[in-house]
Amino acid sequence: MNRQELVNLIKEKQSYLCVGLDTDIQKIPKHLLSHADPVFAFNKAIIDATKDLCVAYKINTAFYECMGIRGWESLQRTVEYIPSGIFTIADAKRGDIGNTSTQYAKTFFETYKFDSVTVAPYMGKDSVEPFLQFPEKWAIMLGLTSNEGSKDFQLLETGNEFLFEKVLKAGVQWGTPENMMFVVGATQSSQLGHIRKLVPDHFFLVPGVGAQGGSLEDISTQAMNKDCGLLVNASRAIIYAGNGEDFAIDARNVALTYQQEMAIYLRKMATAVV
Ligand SMILES: O=C(O)c1cc(=O)[nH]c(=O)n1[C@@H]1O[C@H](COP(=O)(O)O)[C@@H](O)[C@H]1O
């Protein structure tokens, strides 16, 4: 999916919600365990219940890889089930020497046909560039992450700036707003406005709303740009909203609450631009 299609999708659906399919077989409702592929049965129900409310699904590969071949099969069924026209993210946090990164890119863009993959930038430019060589595909590079450990390296002062600022500036040089996004944690509220000034045009993938306590209002008021420029992810808060027969309805209700709040911020942004 290209940038303009993503921007149009956000406008049409009045949503920049990304539903995170961090599907843990230990946490899904027990009645699904009799299915041949319980993880897919769960994802299918969540997708059916939320597909009109979100613009993206993020599949965190860890929850699938840990199950070996069965997990990869559930991942493949899930990504194939997501309706075309919805943005797909393989949250795999890859990055290695160039020829290895190329294989990772082929895995997620060609074999599994995701629109995007999350990329860890620690190994530098030649580890990220292979992900930028595929038309209408995206690298989503870690910028300032949502977790406590972001202080360990990302918030190290290097000269007159934090390390994460150097990383973002480098990423802006390596990719374009058409093939590169950055991960910015919703929990980093004191930095959101500053990061948007530093990176005015790119989309941000923003995890950390819901279970990690990040505020949708903070993100939206501080980091939205004229094209919206945000994909806000919530995983556990949506997919585990309920645990009974009606779990998908519970998930939908939470997703709907996020979407309705997003529509308000989008309207404010549209009015401000006019
Ligand atoms: O790259 C990510 O998606 C990511 C980056 C980050 O800084 N923080 C973060 O939580 N994530 C991912 O976003 C999801 C957050 O899940 P919930 O906290 O359940 O909404 C998980 O899949 C995390 O692996």
TrEMBL record:
Q: Which PANTHER family match?
A: OROTIDINE 5'-PHOSPHATE DECARBOXYLASE
Biological process (GO) annotations held by this record are:
'de novo' pyrimidine nucleobase biosynthetic process; 'de novo' UMP biosynthetic process
Q: Give the pathway.
A: Pyrimidine metabolism; UMP biosynthesis via de novo pathway; UMP from orotate: step 2/2
Q: Which UniProt keywords apply?
A: Decarboxylase, Lyase, Pyrimidine biosynthesis
Reactions performed catalytically: orotidine 5'-phosphate + H(+) = UMP + CO2
* Pfam families to which the protein is assigned, alphabetical: OMPdecase
Gene Ontology MF, one? orotidine-5'-phosphate decarboxylase activity
EC numbers for this chain: 4.1.1.23
What Gene3D superfamilies does its record include? Aldolase class I
Enzyme's top EC category: lyase
Which family is annotated? Answer: Belongs to the OMP decarboxylase family. Type 2 subfamily.
Q: Which organism is it from?
A: Chitinophaga silvatica
Protein's name in the database: Orotidine-5'-phosphate decarboxylase
Where does the Orotidine 5'-phosphate decarboxylase domain start and stop, copy by copy? 16-251
Name of the gene encoding the protein in the UniProt record:
pyrF
List the SUPFAM superfamilies.
Answer: Ribulose-phoshate binding barrel
